């Protein structure tokens, strides 16, 4: 058995647990630069064919010749074990070297620069003195990312397409944790962003606008409980894309907590935010992930409570004053109606429904076998109309010319670039110019809607596509199954139209019109509910024929 070969493979596998994608390579090198005390960091990412390379240059403290000679060994680090540093495990650089074809490192300290060359994770040659035009600092040049694991390159094209947005988020979270560091980012020689955190929540808000493209306004919050202090920045957005939790300078990743926080914002309100959590340092919080993340802090419940109070501050500020309703007054029901709780109406039973009379020009009394049923004439007609409109707009798409112009953040821009074809399937034709979106064509269904309604509807549809709540285009010829893929704002418009066109309360119906309405209702896919989910009919009493 070739133990050396097995050992090298296991080392690559272990490296793959630390470095998952190209973004991890960039983040680890950036964090190393920031930990070195750098005030300026420049990141260059180049992609040519299937070869992707990353170069990071900083003006930090640099490394001595002795430290540089030990560099790249697993679990070796020149950093002090401090919570203020992004990491001190000594795993990231070794893992990057183990997955990439070639790595070159130049570091300068005490006016002398040294150069080291690696092939894989093995150094080649001795340390050589070289030129470096800074008083101190380091250059790390990683050539052919994942060159030693070719199968990982299959996703490069998709990663490269989405990388600008992800790099913006990654750079933001690093700079948000470390003020007074300037980071310049380039892709294939083209400047992508340049940002610096000037400090405090004001500096973080400026970064959210610069790196994430969020327009604001930004609301700062702060609260504490026992030994936990939380401060943050919140801004109203159409999506939930930019949401960050940072605990003691490290990213806190907990889907349960983020899901809970979003519920506190309310059903019809979305926000982007970053919360900085400061609490006592627990050893278990530092050792939960090789990627230097924390997933379940020891004081999780208290942290959630404080964040909930901060969200409440923001929602109270955003919500307008609403008139409170008085307590409901209930009238005792007659015992004559108490025996209907066990009655269940179905589509099949409605086939046998026969109208008796109209009550107050609002309801139709009808008989289903031995049950007296009340049908809401508006709800019934609304169901008939909404299904007709659903069928019409899922089987054909009439479009109209429009000119809806708006500016998006970088996350939203990436979604427009990614799902342009899916938008076109639903009659939405767009033009993209930097972060400016112009909708040139839209379905006639929403052609007369306000621009803001169209903008919000399209962006929320993109979010549904990105989260795979919708597939963009239906794979069925039936309207009922196609409906699930239709943009929500199309569906809402159809419901509103059905409500306007349906028979109103106060309209008198002949017995023939009542019967026709019941016949149309029975042919519906869901005759038991109106377009908005209210019941179309309810049982009143059961009687027995003598």
UniProtKB/TrEMBL annotation:
Upper lineage: Eukaryota, Fungi, Dikarya, Ascomycota, Saccharomycotina
Species annotation: Ogataea philodendri
Record-level Gene Ontology MF annotations: ATP binding; ATP hydrolysis activity; ATP-dependent DNA damage sensor activity
Name the record gives this protein: MutL C-terminal dimerisation domain-containing protein
GO cellular component, one term: mismatch repair complex
Annotated MutL C-terminal dimerisation domain residues: 355-509
Gene Ontology biological-process annotations: mismatch repair
UniProt-listed InterPro entries: HATPase_C_sf, MutL/Mlh/Pms-like, MutL_C, MutL_C_dimsub, MutL_C_regsub, MutL_C_sf
Gene3D superfamilies: Histidine kinase-like ATPase, C-terminal domain, MutL, C-terminal domain, dimerisation subdomain, MutL, C-terminal domain, regulatory subdomain
Protein family according to the UniProt entry: Belongs to the DNA mismatch repair MutL/HexB family.
């Amino acid at each position: 058995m070739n133990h050396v070969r097995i050992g090298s493979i296991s080392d690559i596998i272990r490296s793959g647990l630390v470095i998952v994608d190209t973004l991890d390579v960039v983040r680890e090198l950036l964090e190393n630069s920031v930990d070195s005390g750098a005030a300026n960091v420049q990141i260059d990412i180049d992609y040519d064919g299937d070869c992707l390379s990353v170069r990071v240059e900083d003006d930090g403290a640099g490394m001595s010749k002795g430290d540089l000679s030990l560099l790249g060994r697993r679990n070796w680090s020149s950093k002090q074990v401090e919570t203020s540093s992004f990491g001190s495990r000594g795993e990231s650089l070794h893992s990057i070297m183990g997955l990439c074809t070639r790595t070159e490192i130049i570091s300068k300290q005490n006016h002398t620069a040294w150069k080291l060359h690696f092939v894989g994770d093995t150094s080649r040659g001795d340390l050589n003195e070289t030129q470096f035009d800074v008083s101190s600092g380091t250059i790390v040049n990683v050539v052919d990312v994942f060159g030693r694991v070719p199968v990982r390159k299959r996703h490069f094209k998709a990663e490269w397409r989405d990388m600008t947005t992800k790099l913006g988020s990654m750079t933001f979270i690093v700079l948000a944790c470390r003020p007074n560091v300037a980071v310049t980012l380039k892709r294939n020689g083209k400047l992508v962003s340049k940002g610096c955190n000037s400090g405090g929540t004001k500096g973080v808000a400026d970064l959210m606008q610069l790196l994430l493209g969020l327009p604001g306004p930004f609301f700062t919050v702060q609260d504490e409980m026992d030994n936990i202090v939380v401060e943050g920045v919140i801004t109203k957005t159409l999506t939930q894309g930019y949401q960050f939790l940072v605990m003691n300078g490290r990213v806190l990743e907990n889907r349960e907590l983020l899901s809970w926080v979003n519920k506190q914002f309310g059903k019809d309100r979305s926000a982007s935010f970053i919360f900085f959590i400061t609490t006592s340092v627990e050893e278990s919080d530092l050792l939960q992930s090789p990627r230097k993340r924390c997933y379940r802090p020891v004081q999780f419940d208290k942290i959630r409570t404080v964040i909930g109070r901060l969200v409440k501050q923001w929602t109270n500020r955003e919500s307008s004053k609403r008139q409170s309703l008085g307590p409901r007054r209930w009238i005792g029901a007659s015992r004559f109606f108490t025996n209907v709780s066990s009655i269940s109406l179905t589509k099949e039973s409605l086939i046998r429904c026969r109208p008796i009379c109209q009550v107050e020009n609002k309801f139709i009394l009808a008989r289903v076998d031995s049950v007296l049923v009340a049908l809401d004439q508006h709800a019934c007609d609304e169901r008939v109309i909404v299904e007709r409109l659903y069928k019409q707009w899922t089987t054909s798409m009439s479009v109209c010319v429009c000119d809806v112009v708006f500016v998006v953040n970088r996350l939203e821009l990436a979604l427009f670039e990614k799902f342009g074809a899916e938008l076109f399937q639903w009659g939405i034709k767009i033009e993209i110019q930097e972060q400016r979106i112009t909708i040139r064509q839209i379905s006639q269904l929403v052609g007369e809607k306000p621009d803001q309604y169209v903008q919000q509807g399209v962006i929320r549809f993109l979010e549904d596509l990105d989260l795979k709540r919708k597939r963009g285009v239906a794979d069925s010829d039936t309207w009922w199954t196609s409906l699930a893929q239709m943009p929500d704002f199309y569906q809402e418009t159809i419901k509103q139209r059905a409500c306007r066109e349906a028979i109103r309360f106060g309209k008198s119906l002949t017995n023939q019109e009542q019967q026709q309405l019941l016949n149309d209702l029975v042919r519906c896919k869901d005759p038991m509910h109106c377009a908005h989910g209210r019941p179309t009919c309810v049982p009143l009493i059961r009687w027995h024929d003598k």
